[in-house]
């Protein structure tokens, strides 16, 4: 049986479990908090850049393509959307923090 003339390969967004964050940070990723200004709180994730989703959608950023990008938001939804925009713009090393900062806090508290 022959394969169809066209095949679509859909790669799921790379997700990073909060439990693996510490070891992933050793790979020197650029951490980007994509929450809107009204939700952003400096210091929620040390060293994170604040680039709201709206700026990523518009391409108003200078994120490097040669380093891993770890996208974060409160629950992992906005960061996943931001990742789709970045992948469409040619970024290949894009990761989404699974469950966002909300899940990271629970893991840190041992829940």
UniProtKB/TrEMBL annotation:
For whether the record's keyword set contains Calcium, the answer is no
Its protein name is Thiosulfate sulfurtransferase GlpE
Origin species:
Meiothermus taiwanensis
Q: Per its record, what are the GO molecular function terms?
A: thiosulfate-cyanide sulfurtransferase activity
Database matches in Gene3D superfamilies: Rhodanese-like domain (3.40.250.10)
**Record-linked Pfam families:** Rhodanese (PF00581)
Gene name, please? glpE_7
Indicate yes or no for the key word Cell division: no
> In the Enzyme Commission scheme, what number(s) does this protein have?
2.8.1.1
Spell out the SMART domains in the cross-references. Answer: RHOD
- Domain Rhodanese per the UniProt entry, residue ranges: 25-109
Q: Which UniProt keywords apply?
A: Transferase
Which PROSITE patterns did the record assign? RHODANESE_3
């Amino acid at each position: 049986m022959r394969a169809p003339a066209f095949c679509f390969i859909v790669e799921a967004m790379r997700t990073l479990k909060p439990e693996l964050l510490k070891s992933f940070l050793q790979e020197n990723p650029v951490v980007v908090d994509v929450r809107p200004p009204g939700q952003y709180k400096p210091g929620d994730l040390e060293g994170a850049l604040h680039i709201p989703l709206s700026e990523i959608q518009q391409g108003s950023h200078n994120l490097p393509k040669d380093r891993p990008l770890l996208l974060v938001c409160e629950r992992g939804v906005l960061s996943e959307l931001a990742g789709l925009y970045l992948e469409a713009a040619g970024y290949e090393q894009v990761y989404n923090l699974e469950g966002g900062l909300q899940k990271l806090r629970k893991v840190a508290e041992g829940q």
